[in-house]
Amino acid sequence: MSKIEGSDLETKSFMDEVKSFEKGAFFDLGHPLLNRISESFFKAAGIGAIQALTREGYFTAFDGGFDSTGSGSVTPDIPGAKKHRFPGLGGETNKKSLEALVKNTGKESLQWGLAAGVYSGLTYGLKEARGAHDWKNSAVAGAITGVALALTSDDSSHQQVVQGAITGAAFSTAANLLAGIF
To answer: Is the Cβ–Cβ distance between 139 and 173 less than 8 Å?
Structure first.
């Protein structure tokens, strides 16, 4: 039988490998809560890194361009909008710019991973504690996740923390309620 299993492993395609990830977990840390938190953290951190890099690439490409008015930039002038989320990226050398990009992409990845891990862990823990998975679990988990995200910003204020809690609770509750409809 091991001979058959060995031949199956050799004939697996890339798509078979990808499909196997959907069935099982990336990690087995010995407890479902730890598995869920770590899996959510790493998936969201990867998405955060990709999002940060593509956004910065977009703004870098357009800041280097020119428009017909001769202003030297095709980035739209939106009041209060930041052209670059990564302030150190316009360094004096390519090495400094690359260091700033890596540092800031890592920070943003950590924030995305934190949000996903906290939310996933809280929803699982609340479901286990209360014996039900409903909008109340989503609201509490979303509020605490919103607070955690607000506290990771460089200049968090009391108002930002409260706003993060309200926004997190609203989004997660809406997502939970809409998931039941669709």
So the answer is: yes
